[in-house]
Amino acid sequence: MLRMRNRNDVYAGLFLIGVAIVFIWQGWGLYVGTLDEMGPGYFPNLLSVLQILLGSAVFAGGFSKAGELPEAFRPRPLILVLASIGFFCLTIEHLGLFLSLFGVVMIAGLAQQRAQHVHNVILAIALAFFSALIFVKGLSLQMTIWPAGLLQP
Amino acid sequence: MTTIEGFLNGLLVALQWGNLFYCFVGALIGTLIGVLPGIGPVATIAMLLPMTFYMAPVPALIMLAGIFYGAQYGGSTTAILVNLPGENSAVVTCLDGYQMARKGRAGPALAVAALGSLFAGMFATAFIVLLAPPLAKFALAFGAAEYFALMVLGLFAAIVLAHGSILKALGMITLGLLLSMVGTDLSSGAIRFTFGIQELTDRLDFVPLAMGVFAVAEVIRNLENPEARQTITTKFRDLWPTRDDFRRSWPAVLRGSVLGSFLGLLPGGGAMLSSFAAYSIEKRLSKEPERFGQGAVEGVAAPESANNAGAQTSFVPLLTLGIPGNATIALMAGAMMIHGVQPGPQVMSSNPDLFWGVIASMILGNFMLVVINLPLVFIWVKLLSVPYRLFYPAILVFCCIGVYTLNYAVFDVLMMIVFGFMGYLLLRWKFEPAPLLLAFILGPMLEDNFRRALNISDGDFMIFIERPISATLLVITVLLAGLMVLPALRKKRQTTFTEEA
After folding, report:
1. Do A79 and A53 fall into the same domain?
2. Chain B residues with CB-CB distance to A58 below 8 A
3. Rg of chain B over CA atoms, in angstroms?
4. Closest CA to B478 of B161, B147, B149
5. Chain A interface test: which of B49, B165, B187, B211 (most A C-beta within 10 Å)
6. Nearest to B401 among A31, A71, A135 (CB)
7. Is A150 part of a structural domain of the chain?
8. Does residue A41 lie within any of the structural domains?
9. Of B192, B393, B413, the CB nearest to A105
């Protein structure tokens, strides 16, 4: 019975193989051409095949060589950090820079193990304020500070 | 003597009040982010890129260059005082620098690092002045086969130092190359790998990828493993090195500068490779190798000079061949193109002010950096006591603004989330993401030159071997690859740097 001796490598190998398969699948209809007249499909297919070979070797190595134990998975920072950037995407063109960044910092602040809410509110206000000052007032990047319609006629 | 004239002219450009100011700003920002672990020059320059739209090209590039080599100075401060590399290229400085600090000799370690870097900076600038013009001429003899061979060499050079599995490092290269294929194919106009998403036909943008993998993923990882930051217990008795320190350091500084200058020329080389190579060579050459890892001053002097020299000469492939050799330089190429300057051998003749101005500014910048770093080191040390919880939300905020304002496109920020997630997985599975970025940068040029070379030769691979320059480059690549798989060297590689783990 095969045992995974290095979980990281098993997953890493599968990841490489998986991505290469997606590229082969997506590039299926592309014209490949010949060595002297390569089409848009030639080089990517070559790379994908290479990556599948590499991935397989890494995958197989995960069963033969022992490695570091995988670290415990803590979903909280991953989800909240990505969510904070997602909040920026959703709001930047509607709520303006100040409120959007305030939300980003508040959500990101929850990602730490012991979130300190009062500190976070102060930090969020400070960062949003200074960003608006520096980027919009100072460097005149094209962003609104407040929601459209508010404070503006 | 057009070279000297060009350089003097460049010095005048760099000495203009505005340029001097931006050189200082760059050096200051560079030191700041160099000192702070968890944020590097790639993320910083990516964040500042949109602002340079509004600047003239010369001051913009002077500032960005200052950030890049300034980060090498700042990175050593953190490495010496808290045993944390502020930058990747300062990883080896931790080995002996921190040991010196523990023995109460933090001051001399900092001084040797800064003065060594200063010397290396001057040396590298002279090296560029003397070498760039002939290289630019030489570059005109480069055909598709040579470009391809050089880039392959660069990609291999980038993984020489990859930690752990070489197979995984190679996987990062193929992954980076594949990602760079997304979008419109340059030569046929065919649209590839877009999943039907309109925004992707324009090719994936480099900045969201860099920020996702290097800034966002890094923040997540740091929050996952909150490590107690070591506080600085070292006292500074005095900053000035002893006569013995000087005697031991200067040959190391010299060797580091020469080595760094050459390795910086290689695409994929640059600061990190230089510092590792310089440290191993110094240890090998030393009559008392057992002192290394115990606070040997040469172990600080050599890598610190090498990384600064390598950082500076890594501009040369961009300015002479149009090949960006690492991620930071690729952003610089982006900044040049924003201002309508196409990087390549013609920059020297078509934009002499830019070419020589940026090079000359490096000398001034290096002097500023010594002043910024040595007497003011106490201020930077204070920065290290700022807790991470105040610091990471600022990184995220700047990432969002930086990526969004590139094209004012929410899509770019969404891509940063995707790549942040991917980067997190890669770090978790012990991939090293730096080669991925280099491969992504070189991908389109690599494919294009591969196709053209084989088109010229009617599909005959001999073209890569028959042409002398290309053959030489490929032979070096094969030697390098051979060295990597040799079990003896693999073991050596691990033992040389085990102390860092």
Report:
1. no
2. 165, 167-168, 171
3. 22
4. B149
5. B165
6. A135
7. no
8. yes
9. B393
Q: Where are the alpha helices (DSSP H) in chain A?
A: 7-26, 42-64, 75-91, 96-109, 117-131
Q: How far apart are CA B191 and CA B197, in angstroms?
A: 11
Contact A43 B399 (CB under 8 A): no
Range of the domain at A41: 7-64
Cα–Cα distances in angstroms (integers) from residue B405 to residues A46, B50, B57, in the given order: 36, 6, 18
Q: Does any domain span residue A144?
A: no
Owner of token pair 């500032």: B63
Q: What are the structural domain ranges in chain B?
A: 7-139+149-500
- Does A131 sit within 8 Å of B397, measured CB to CB? yes
A37 plus A84 within the same structural domain: no
- Residuewise pLDDT in 10s, chain B (501 residues): 478 888 899 999 999 999 999 999 999 999 998 888 777 788 788 878 877 878 889 999 999 999 988 988 888 888 888 887 777 788 888 889 888 888 888 889 999 999 999 999 999 999 988 888 888 788 888 899 999 999 999 898 888 766 668 899 999 999 999 999 999 998 888 999 998 888 898 888 888 998 898 889 989 988 987 765 555 555 565 677 888 888 889 999 999 999 999 998 888 777 888 888 899 888 888 888 888 888 899 999 999 999 999 999 998 888 888 888 888 888 888 888 888 888 888 888 888 899 999 999 999 999 999 988 888 888 887 777 778 888 899 989 988 998 998 889 999 999 999 999 999 999 999 898 888 988 998 899 999 999 999 999 998 999 999 999 999 999 999 988 887 776 555 555 555 554 333
- In terms of domains, do A60 and A14 share one? yes
Q: How many angstroms separate the CA of residue A134 from the nearest CA in chain B?
A: 11
Q: Is residue A20 part of a domain?
A: yes
Interface contact A109-B393, CB threshold 8 A = yes
